[in-house]
Fold:
Amino acid sequence: MSGDSSQTAPGEPLLRVEGLRTWFPIKSGVFQRTVGHVRAVDGVDITVHAGETVALVGESGCGKTTAGRSLLRLIEPREGVVFFEGRDLLKLPKKELRDARRTAQMVFQDPMSSLNPRLRVRDIIAEGMDSFGIGRDKAERTERVAELLERVQLKADHMSRYPHEFSGGQRQRIGIARALSVEPRLLVLDEAVSALDVSIQAQVLNLLSELQRDLALAYLFITHDLSVVRYLAKRVCVMYLGQVVEEASAEELFRDPQHPYTRGLLSAIPSIDPDRRGLDVSFEGDVPSSANPPSGCRFHTRCPQVMDRCRVEEPQLIQLSGRQSRCFLSEEGSCGVSLG
Amino acid sequence: MSEFLLEVQDLVTSFPGSGSERARVVDGVSFNIRPGEVMALVGESGCGKSVSALSLLRLVPKPGAIESGSVLLDGKDILSLSVPDMRKVRGHEMSMIFQEPMTSLNPVVRVGDQVVEAIRLHEDVSVKAARSRTLELFKQVRIPDPEVRLDAYPHHLSGGLKQRIMIAMALATRPKLIIADEPTTALDVTIQAQILSLLRQLQQELDTAVLLITHDLGVVNELADRISVMYAGRIVEQGDRREVLANPGHPYTRGLLRSMPGLGRPGEPLAEISGMVPAPADWPRGCRFCTRCSEVLDICESEVPARRRLSLTHHVACHAVEATE
Ligand SMILES: Nc1ncnc2c1ncn2[C@@H]1O[C@H](COP(=O)(O)OP(=O)(O)OP(=O)(O)O)[C@@H](O)[C@H]1O
Ligand SMILES: Nc1ncnc2c1ncn2[C@@H]1O[C@H](COP(=O)(O)OP(=O)(O)OP(=O)(O)O)[C@@H](O)[C@H]1O
Ligand code: SF4
Ligand SMILES: [Mg+2]
Ligand SMILES: [Mg+2]
Structure:
């Protein structure tokens, strides 16, 4: 069943997103005329290789969810390229899109709102198998639901229960089992552990990394919580107001963040080391509106290192060795390699 | 006069359970807070942190009820006050900041007017005086353009600004104790950092005591002087911030600290606490943590562990811990 799904050329990433742009119209007046746009996602590139985790991080409203949903065309983007398993999803007709989407599944933050409360767990998990014709008959699908439940460390006999009978962590496991039921190669996990207590979060993170190892799954891991990222992700894209402002391996990003925004985000994470107290509030104020992003560098209104140039000129993503940063300071960046 | 501003002794609060028995979701909780001190109450979801806080304010929603115990604020017995006297204490001597500012702000009233109202409810002052005090408060909680914000409606403000308004409102009556229930949980880390640093500055300037409720040990480390760790309705460990974080005595506290993802090394499994907090009806008879504990002994299942002292200021309720006295 799954043999046909790999159409990715050797060396080609599983997912390659380029120049993705999704704007929401702002309507006003009796005639609901479009008076402007929320530029939720405004030229985003993301690359995910088979079997690896890329994290998409940033503050609330920066466009993470919109990016995740747009690349699966759950929202129609206005432009861009989304190469997944060798095809541009944005160019596919609806019928083919449906099939292409089988191997790219989404898992949401609040499983309660995405699990139909009137269905039993068995039917929730089997829904995708039914619609893609996976499994010979009902009995075989039920068998597979039992396997999947055990796979996510629940019990096979949980399948006859309803979602409300489960805790938040268990519901998230059900959501993961449902996504796995159609044998995906990519999971877009949108704040999948954000609502959970740390103890339960650790359980689900461990489960995710075990599944990744066993099934060679790729994850696009969307979160506002950088501390989770360090553990799970190989590469990280940091978003600010619809754009990627820094992209690097997780290791380098935490060791040596280049963009002032990334530095601020990292220094705002409270530590549990009793000798380290007193957070560095490195930038004041709130995130500006993405309907009306600041001129020049979108971060300039909050940047502690702002220069005159930043207010008027828009920085591009500057290529450093093996990483990128959208900041003029990176031009003669610490790596000394500027190809941008 | 006691050295403590707040003394909570053996507090029990219950809700109707599945059968005829009531579930004691707060079951014998004791802690004290000195004037100007920050006490953190920390634990997983469903451990009884919010119900404890609501009990102190006597705001437990029916059919929940405080069954027994005592709560003294400045020596005054809170649980036996008349309803009007309690109303005076609430919002005057103690006030509360909630996680979700939107639910506690009236969406159709300008935020400045809401604070003015709160002040005039407790103090006999003119609107003009209350308004100028509100402006002072807005400056104190570092709201940018405070004059303009007085006339804003809640939905015009970001989450961080709304939380600042809530703090201004909580400070309006110059309380001795602020109960802050997850005050930064709904905020982004950068905004959380701003609010935490604001709370700390204010708490030092005004010498207000704070009961800080949170599930985030990082937030605890930032603000708390002392920590009470709560599990399934009981306090299982209590001590100075440094003692609890650097030298956690209870297996539950250790589990919480170890499962923080920041501590994990990439590629290696994170330490987890197995299972989850059971529903109150299923809380075990002995140590309530025994179903999840990695250090469980036979005795844990049948007997409630007594408090053991680890130092003058640090104690733990666990059978596996040797007391130092
Ligand atoms: N359907 C929509 N219509 C109009 N605007 C929208 C819509 N969905 C999102 N937006 C706006 O687009 C921007 C990006 O939103 P998005 O939900 O993608 O952010 P996010 O990074 O996922 O935030 P969070 O961390 O809060 O989930 C925000 O300004 C949001 O208000
Ligand atoms: N109104 C209520 N009716 C019945 N049970 C309740 C009510 N409020 C709380 N409880 C129960 O009391 C227990 C403690 O709840 P509480 O809200 O105090 O937990 P908490 O530690 O604040 O958790 P969280 O971190 O999720 O806020 C839970 O088991 C909860 O189900
Ligand atoms: S008393 Fe027993 S079960 Fe409870 S925490 Fe200590 S060792 Fe674990
Ligand atoms: Mg989102
Ligand atoms: Mg609570």
User: Anything to note?
Assistant: The two ends of chain B are 29 Å apart (CA to CA).
